[in-house]
Amino acid sequence: MFPDLIDTRPLRRAIDDGLEWVVRNWGDEFEAAAYPLLMLLKAIEDLLIATPWWLIMAILVGIAWLATRNWKLPAIVLVSLLFLGVMDLWKDAMTTMALMIAATITAIVVSIPVGVWMSRSPTVRNIITPILDLMQTLPSFVYLIPTVMIFGPGKIPALIATIVYAAPPLVRLTDLGLRSVDPAVMEASRAFGTNPRQRLLGVQIPLALPTILAGINQTTMMALAMVVIASMIGAGGLGYQVLQGIGRLEVSRGLFAGLGIVVLAIIFDRITQSFGKQLQGRIGLAEAR
Amino acid sequence: MNAIDIQAETRSDLAIAMRGVTKIFGENPEEALALLQSGRSKAEVQAETNHVVGLDNVSLDIARGQIFVVMGLSGSGKSTLIRHVNRLIEPTAGEIVVNGTDVLKMSLDELRTYRRTQVAMVFQKFGLLPHRSVIDNVAYGLEVRGVGRAERLKEAAKWIEIVGLSGYEQSQPRQLSGGQQQRVGLARALALDTDIILMDEAFSALDPLIRSGMQDQLIELQKTLGKTILFITHDFDEALKIGHRIAVLKDGAVQQEGQPEDIVLRPANEHIEEFVREVNKARAIHVRSIMEKGEHELCEQAVSKDARCEDVLPLFAESQWVGVVDETGHQIGRVTAKQVIKALARYTPGVGDAAS
After folding, report:
1. Does the distance separating the beta carbons of A184 and B126 come in below 8 Å?
2. What is the ipTM of this complex?
3. CB-CB: which of B112, B131, B172 is closest to A195?
4. Over 90: is that where the pLDDT of A57 sits?
5. What's the pLDDT score for residue A174?
6. Which positions 205-224 of A are in contact with B (Cβ < 8 Å)?
7. Nearest Cβ partner of A192 from B111, B130, B141?
8. A151 lies in a domain?
9. Hey, which residues does B286 pair with through a beta bridge?
10. Pick from A187, A198, A207: which is nearest to B130 by CB?
11. Is the residue at A6 inside a domain?
């Protein structure tokens, strides 16, 4: 056994007491700060549930067609959505979709600026990279419990946990995409007297867009991977059905809801990937790489 | 240093004046600079300090309205040199005066304005924006400058036509061939209507035939527009064809600077002689530099004063003397086959007393 060099109990007690103090004194403030997130999630969820099922189908099939200009993907999307409807999973699927979309939107808003910042400064990159590693590897329950203590069980901790887990790939790929823009093009842009903002918006971001889109694809996938855990703390949706299935040993319920998650994943993965490919083709990177 | 300052300022007919420009790449260039100035060679500095000497005390005078070619092999520092003119690279020491203004004293803002309005650049790898159409690429510099959409598209369309790409306005750069892409790069630089155009190995990536066509077009454009063009190349033939003046660079230092004939007829050292040996002298030497000047009886056949030796050779089949005429058609001199043969043979190694 490793020798007891120090007594860790005081340290642990200090952390536990500190968290309790934060919950007691700052709980309301934290909740108020997270309120916009909750509003975003609620708005998306209400909208998705209020929208008639056929309209949602039409929209998603339409987007799939725009992304590929081909009948294959729209057909897959249609069959997938019909599966959700037929299996009586429609409302849960909409709840899960809302959580995923809210998490993705928040992740985009936060991750892209962070990625831009990282791409410009090696110091920032050296600081943020280990934080991203931590966010992706720390078991989610470790930060779920304090979030639940602060916000109480419900949709906010579920959303925060999903964002923490899903945002890192987008930050990484934004950084990578911006840094791998052809230096010859960047130099040409500099020679024409552009300022950093003109280079970022006019050259770097457009050329890094396929990579950034791959990051968004990863974010949606990871957000869906979190739905079961998120439902444990009150997110509802398909994840909750899986949980109930496990709890009641109803294999069928867990299986169908699980397949529902897979179906959602396929829809969003294929759509975002196709948009990425289309974009790559448009700026001529498809042939070059 | 002061005397040089005054010289640079008073010679306002110069488009670009570089004085003692030295560039050392590495962590601590000052230390390496001191070594270099104490007389060490590029290789010695690199061995001692692990710093690479990009440019070694380069001074060049580039007059307005000429094509000035900097020629050198890869690693000679020619691409580093051209990037000093618009300060894409900062020198370690020296002075760069463009149109009478010291480029190195400009603030970041002034530098951007300078790049937008006074120097345009064409790149070896084209540097086109792959996500924009041809016309938007050509209009890019104007867009950066803040010119309104309608006006810049009109201007861009005009230059697209001049470089011969009409009909390709809405194409994407990747749909064009290399030669066409470089025409876009050229149009993009010309659209800015700057006095100075920097061309960094602009034609090196093109096929020989297309390259030759682009060279002819550049010579034509320069004649009609009167721009100052600083052209970088590793190809001596190209330098001789388009250059009004040529500077040969080796290891970051200027070996010789002069008119194409100067370099072909009087190479300053062995390094340059090696280039000269490979070159087609008949194309390099202008007849005017070897002709018998003055009033002579009118010759039956005549060439312009811009003609090269290769242009007069076929005429000797018919007549003994060929006249040389200026722009107005007035005869200013004449040449014989003998003179031409003498000029071409003069420095061929093993024949006569070459360089002595």
Report:
1. yes
2. 0.81
3. B112
4. yes
5. 95
6. 206-207
7. B141
8. yes
9. B308
10. A207
11. no
Question: What is the mean predicted confidence (pLDDT) over A251-269?
Answer: 92
A140: domain range? Answer: 13-288
How confident is the model over A105-116, as a mean pLDDT?
94
Residue A1 lies in a domain: no
The domain that contains A37 carries what CATH number? 1.10.3720.10
Q: Contact A184/B123, CB-based, under 8 Å?
A: yes
Name residues 109-168 of chain B within 8 A of A (Cβ).
111-117, 119-121, 123, 125-131, 140-141, 144-145
Give yes or no for a contact between B206 and B214, defined as CB atoms under 8 angstroms apart. Answer: yes
State the pTM of this model.
0.82
Provide, as residue numbers in chain B, all residues whose Cβ is less than 8 Å from the Cβ of A213. none
Q: How many domains does chain A fold into?
A: 1
pLDDT in tens, B273-310: 888 887 877 877 888 888 888 777 788 788 888 788 88
Of residues B115, B123, B131, nearest to A282 (C-beta): B131
Spell out the domains of chain B, with CATH numbers in brackets.
62-93+102-118+194-279 (3.40.50.300), 286-345 (3.10.580.10)
Q: Does A7 map to a domain?
A: no
- Residues in chain B with pLDDT < 70? 1-12, 346-356
Q: What is the pLDDT of residue B100?
A: 87
pLDDT on residue B66: 92
> Which residue is closest to A184 within chain B, CA to CA?
B127
